[in-house]
Amino acid sequence: MNILLVATAFNSLSQRLYVELSDHGHRVEVVLAAHGPDPIRAAARALQPGLIIAPMLKTALPEDVWREHTCLIVHPGPPGDRGPSALDWAIHEHTPHWGVTVLQAEAAMDAGAIWAAEPFSVPPVGKSDLYRGEFADAAVSAVLAAVQRFTEGAHKPLLQTDASVTVVWRDSFHQELRRIDWYRDDTETVLHKLRAADSQPGVLDELLGREVFLHGGHPEDQLRGRPGELLAKRAGAVCRATRDGAVWIPELRPRKNSGDPAPFRRPATSVLAAFTGCDTLPETRIPFDVPANRRTWSDIRYRQDGDVGFLNFSFPGGAMSTQQCRRLLAAYRFALSRPSRVLVLGGTRDFFSNGIHLNVIEAAPDPGRESWANLNAMDDLVEAILLTSDRLVVAALCGNAAAGGAMLALAADEVWCRTGTVLNPHYRRMGLYGSEYWTYTLPLRIGPEQTERLTNDALPVSAAQAERLGLVDRLVPASPQDFAAETRRLACEIAADPGLRRRLAAKADAHAAKEHTRSIASCRNAELAPMHAIFFDPHAPYHALRSAFVRKAPSVSPFPLAKPVGPEQRLVR
Known about the structure:
This protein is α/β, with parallel strands linked by helices.
């Protein structure tokens, strides 16, 4: 069936549904609603889709469109739930289970007939992590069920006037409900409020006399101070005292009217750098192999289970700044000093990596120079992985990976993906040629022809499709909560396999060949030349695209979402 996806942005859920529906044989087109209703009307007229699905909309569909076509809305709440802040309320009310509903568009918000619904558990994680994890899994199941029912034609959607549906209207979740009282709220309450707003919109607060939004929250088990007081800094985050403990806050966002020229999320210490008092905060360091029983924040941790080492890293939004890349390289070298036969890289859930940190770059005094430094730091990390010869390196992707982050994964000997993972192994839509040794790893895995198609089409790839292409070696059918345990089990099995010794010997022999090192070095040099030209050309599209992306401004990209146009493959741009 022809399906048109309508979304305010081609975000993680929109991409997930795009690849899942495509994998099920549907011809899926995408139109972005950021420029108003006219592109939606034009797309509906041109494509005459059998079904329109809206996975993420901040504005209503045009009435003439939903009256003429069957339009299904993905609502992040159980049947009968209505309102614009469903996930916020679910986390706020400490509900252990929530749901997603696929309902038909009509005039009243969220009041349409129900085509499908799916429950999901709500673990104690941030809202954005939940959205990309348990919620996205449930949304895919519900949408696929709704599409099948629509295709078969016999299903009658459930009206919300039915006695089995309890309608509950929930207003927008305003900042008044999020506000933290540092003298009254205990640590768990503070963490709960921070997690319910971790990505958007953040929690409005005051630090060092300036109004900022707080993003993300993690407990601290040792540092103490006066409630609300800043106690320390670590790897870009700041630690703030609560009435009975302390929390780490990784990122801040200045208010738009604060006078800050970069009013978007970035590492907390970066935002506070110009504020009086930030420089006096002590830097508290912890080892990479900090004991597992410590309740403290670190974006990089190493642990070992027998012959298997686990280098876990988790950066907000999957972005990796120059400093984060350098610290992860130091941690990788530390991991290599430990006696393991298998080394597993990746976070325990959510993003693997999305490459260079565009927010930090955009806020830098010289974005071109910072882009160059960030890229070379990523290349150094990828090179270290490519040149590792004495153990099997596994990239374990519980969540999505894109651009340089996808190439970081491909540097490993094996790539394991949770079945809900989405890959974007390309750079084109940000106006970049790309680096991180993609010209070495991609052709080696999938051949030059598929490499050219993937990088030119610049479309997301499902984990299942990636396995078919050869980008991924193993699919892990686990929930986000179970992925780490299943990865650990699989890695320990490989470490115990007698055949691993022969495999490592063959790997060492291959790495000993001079051609191996020479080809890797030549790829890096060939990639860096066009990237240098782009970074230091103020008129290159990359700079405008980066700024629009970071500032969440609609942009008309010279590199639009595109795929080959044929009789059954038209795309609305």
